[in-house]
């Protein structure tokens, strides 16, 4: 395993978050507009190289709550060398109160308020009581989970990854759909790390492995009689399915192979919203689609670039879908595939590199 792939996952997630934030919340996003935004970064960087000055209308891209929380996950794991719920919860809350303008959702802010309350003894309680006790099924756990995958992989403890992810996620999202979405994302990053190289990548094998792992997760949930219908919004089309994430992965098997895949079909069949069930599978589809087919309009771009640009073009929760797709792609392709201009103009890249180096070095401990 090379350090490049650890950096690829964390740096990739940061740049995708920053670039995706430009389109966040827009339901319909054209691929041409996403491509134009990337080309502007690259053109401005070229001007700067040639003339030594930065174009006056060029601004750095800020990361969102996705990266802010991922940084807290990485920092806690690096310092404690294990999962410490108290420490990580404190970091989440402290990071929010230090910079509350990163795009945090209202519901997670109420969790942070609870964590800051000196009377709170159980750090899981503020999240557990949300939405009448059903907890949030949003993608806030999945968007930040890549450092946990790297941590478990580096320490050769991938067998403990599911429990680690569950612990990290339940600090803010306790609904089974939110937790299992984070587990699926973590499994996907881990699966990418296990591949010897992109040359041996097989999309069907990748998906089959995820489905097999999720069988253990969702079947166990079914035995516990976990009820996703108790979630806090209107009934979702997959609420009655005993294994909703497996159902999504099975749909992806067919969609990823279509010669011409309309964005509307992806949105209708898989989703692009802030729920974990409607975004984690979408990120996986974006990764797989770019891995096995050249995305029309992105010819000449490498696989990592195609993954990110295509993920953003799906619209909706663009920053989170892109950051999750990039974490998976970067873990396979390595940091070399991330354009220098993207790294230059996106906030937080240097810290992501440092954290990736720290996690990588844990394998020697």
Automatic annotation (TrEMBL):
Q: Which cofactors, by name?
A: Mg(2+)
Ordered alphabetically, the record's keywords are:
Chromosome, Cytoplasm, DNA damage, DNA repair, Hydrolase, Magnesium, Metal-binding, Mitochondrion, Nucleus
Q: InterPro entries from the xrefs?
A: ADP-ribosylglycohydrolase, Ribosyl_crysJ1, Ribosyl_crysJ1_sf
The annotated regions of Basic and acidic residues compositional bias extend over 217-227
- Tell me which GO cellular component terms the UniProt record holds: chromosome; mitochondrial matrix; nucleus
Catalytic reactions on record: alpha-NAD(+) + H2O = ADP-D-ribose + nicotinamide + H(+)
The molecular function GO annotations come to: metal ion binding; poly(ADP-ribose) glycohydrolase activity
Q: Cofactor: bound how, per the entry note?
A: Binds 2 magnesium ions per subunit.
Its Enzyme Commission number? 3.2.1.143
Q: Where is this region: Disordered?
A: 217-240
Entry binding sites for Mg(2+): 64-66, 317, 319-320
Any Pfam family matching the protein: ADP_ribosyl_GH
Gene Ontology biological-process annotations: DNA repair; peptidyl-serine ADP-deribosylation
- Name its cellular compartments: Chromosome; Cytoplasm; Mitochondrion matrix; Nucleus
Subunit relationships:
Monomer.
PANTHER family hit by this protein = ADP-RIBOSYLGLYCOHYDROLASE, ADP-RIBOSYLHYDROLASE ARH3
Family label: Belongs to the ADP-ribosylglycohydrolase family.
- The entry's protein name is ADP-ribosylhydrolase ARH3
Record the organism. Answer: Elysia chlorotica (Eastern emerald elysia)
What lineage, starting at the top, does this entry show?
Eukaryota, Metazoa, Spiralia, Lophotrochozoa, Mollusca
């Amino acid at each position: 395993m090379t350090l490049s792939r650890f950096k690829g996952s964390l740096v990739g997630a940061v740049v995708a978050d920053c670039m995706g934030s430009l389109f966040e919340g827009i339901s319909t996003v054209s691929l041409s507009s996403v491509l134009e935004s990337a080309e502007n970064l690259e053109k401005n960087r070229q001007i700067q190289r040639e003339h030594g000055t930065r174009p006056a209308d060029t601004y750095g891209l800020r990361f969102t709550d996705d990266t802010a929380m991922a940084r807290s996950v990485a920092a806690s794991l690096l310092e404690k060398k294990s999962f410490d719920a108290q420490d990580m919860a404190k970091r989440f809350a402290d990071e929010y109160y230090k910079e509350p303008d990163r795009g945090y959702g209202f519901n997670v802010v109420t969790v942070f308020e609870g964590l800051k309350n000196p009377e709170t003894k159980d750090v899981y309680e503020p999240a557990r009581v949300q939405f009448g006790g059903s907890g949030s099924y949003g993608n806030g756990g999945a968007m930040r989970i890549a450092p946990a995958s790297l941590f478990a992989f580096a320490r050769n403890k991938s067998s403990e990854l599911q429990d680690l992810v569950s612990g990290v996620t339940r600090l803010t999202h306790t609904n089974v759909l939110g937790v299992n979405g984070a587990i699926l994302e973590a499994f996907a990053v881990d699966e990418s790390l296990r591949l010897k190289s992109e040359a041996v990548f097989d999309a069907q094998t990748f998906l089959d492995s995820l489905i097999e792992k999720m069988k253990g997760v969702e079947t166990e949930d079914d035995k516990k009689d976990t009820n996703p219908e108790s979630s806090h919004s209107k009934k979702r089309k997959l609420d009655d399915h005993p294994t909703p994430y497996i159902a999504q992965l099975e749909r992806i098997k067919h969609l990823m192979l279509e010669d011409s895949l309309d964005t509307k079909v992806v949105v209708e069949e898989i989703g692009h919203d802030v729920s974990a069930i409607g975004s984690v599978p979408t990120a996986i589809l974006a990764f797989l689609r770019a891995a096995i087919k050249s995305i029309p309009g992105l010819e000449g771009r490498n696989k990592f670039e195609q993954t990110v640009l295509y993920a953003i073009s799906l619209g909706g929760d663009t920053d989170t879908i892109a950051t999750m797709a990039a974490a998976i792609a970067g873990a396979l392709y390595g940091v070399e595939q991330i354009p220098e201009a993207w790294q230059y103009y996106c906030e937080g890249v240097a810290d992501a590199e440092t954290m990736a180096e720290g996690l990588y070095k844990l394998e020697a401990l």
